[in-house]
Amino acid sequence: MNDEEIKKIMQQLDIPGPDESKKKVTVNAAMTEFNRQKQIIQKNFKGIEGERRLTGKLKTVLTFFGEFAMKKSFVITGAVTACIALLIIGLSYFSVYKSDFQTKVVQYEPEKTPIQPSDTLEQNNKRSQKDTVTNNLQKIGSVDSNQSVLTKTEKQDGKMRFEDEGIFASVMVNEEKVDMASPSVTTQPKPKERSRNIVSEKKKTTAGLRQGNITPRREALALEEMDCIATIPPPGEHGINEYRETGRDRFETIKPNPVKMVTEEPVSTFSVDVDTASYAFIRRQLNHGALPQKNAVRVEEMINYFDYDYSVPTDRSRPFQPTIVVYPTPWNSETKLLHIGIKGYDIVPEQKPVSNLVFLLDVSGSMNSHDKLPLLKHSFRMLINTLNEEDTIAIVVYAGAAGTVLEPTKVKEKSKILAALDKLQAGGSTAGGEGVRKAYELAEANFNKEGVNRVILATDGDFNVGIQNPEELKNFIERKRAKGIFLSVLGFGQGNYNDALMQKLAQNGNGNAAYIDNLNEARKVLVDESSSTIFTIAKDVKLQIEFNPNLIAEYRLIGYETRILKREDFNNDKVDAGDIGSGHSVTALYEITPVNSKQKLIDDLRYKDSNHSGKTEKKSFNNNEYGFLKIRYKLPDSDKSDLTTTSINKDNEYTRIDDVSADVRFAASVAAFGQLLRGGTYTGEFTYKDVINLAKTAIEKDTFGYRHEFLNLIRLAENY
Fold it and tell me: Which positions make up the signal peptide (predicted)?
């Protein structure tokens, strides 16, 4: 067959045109390789340019030092300097080429895969997008865990990929692509369906770990990814349209108690304080990355937040039995701490009186936050579950106006009460004063002479409509208190939290103030300590101590700045003081300076009369007594006070702090921490680490973990 025959046959053949899709893929592959080679050439060119620049600089330096060395007077100096310069330039030159060499070594090499048509690639992509977290993790789990280390991440084809020595895993949840750097979901499933899917994937992942298919490192990574997605609030959930405000938290200005001379003021008088709001607010601030403002720190409330194993009286008519300890001050070797602890009579469940409770709930616009009204609802649900069936509950709410949501209802109709609670929504201004009036009207209308009559106010304290004048509110609540209706206050939220007003309301309403920052605190206040919150065993409780000037030169009461009373107020039953609930414990600490101390803060007077030095006539008991303690109180159904007394003598003293009980040491550590948060005026060189070391020795009994939590708060404060 000759050439003409072959040519004729070829002309008769119908040769098909090139496949456009294959042509496109081939061209793209060629361009990719072209660009890669171009980048390599550019890097090499930059390296050559860098070499030329370094060589030119080297010649310039050598020329300079050569000319410099030609001068006879500088020959030796020039030679030495030139050697040093050569060494520095050589090291710089080596570092440039070393970095270039490393860049070439880690350079990406494309995978050698056969070129596929575009429609085939799309099908493969769709199949890969249907992989779940579990399947991918099981694929990775087949690799030896000792060799598998996540080295880098890159975003490719719209999804995040983890490179693990050549093995890639696409993290997919509900077939949605997730960007680990900025978690977002393209299509938001319904909240309930979304939660079920994520929980299901978590269970599968955890099961894979137990079977050995998934390494712990990969399980942690996958679960962290799913948690990140799960916490994204869908539209309508909290975090989208909730009320937020900062910088308007209000606290009463506190000036720390000064050191006083016993010869000038031998008597100290104050009202008890069983509130715990300060500690809970401090905890929230520290957990949110900020130190609390000084006026938010009330040391006595921090100490009284914790329970102590004091002696409990057995007779309800004598509700207190003081615990007194004297021991060395942890932060000052020249002073002593006087620890006074009392614990109220604990009512047994069978003796609890019937309760007539009115919930006064703030549903104004400022309560539209996940840590306010929603937390409030959960908290009161807990309280309702602790009450007896014959107890009565009414619910009053206030926003732009006050209204009754639930008339007085027996707790045995719990479903009705909970339904009314669940329907509450936030909105409007805050007519707090009007709400207070209506709540007291309901409590008075359903008054039980043999039971407990109490209004429980839950709010952020942002009253802006109705009775706004604190004095007017105070007088109103005092009048209702005289009729036997008491008030307790629960604070919620931060940013516009009005602690100053809430403290005044609670103090004048013969109640206590607590701050609810989470459900654990709600359970502590309204479940574990519900008897203390609701049932009063003594009212108008006052303490007075007379110090012996023959043994004590100076004293300072730690905390209780807002509870100081005049000396004459102690015996005046018309002067209001704090109340103590069933099983409540109260602790007070004095720092006392012995007369022979080398670190007295107040100097003796130069011109004092030696015949009237202020010292009492020495008697036999004066050599043994540090002071004399008096406690005055009223029983709940009485308007006349009773008195109990005890001496503070050397029999109560310990020479080493290690010898006192764990409760006493722990109270000292809390007092030290509170003083440091306020600036540490009297704590010397005592540090947060010292507080931690002291508290560590006193966490033996910690059923609910409150003392361990306290240690963590100290560590947080230490780092701010």
Answer: none
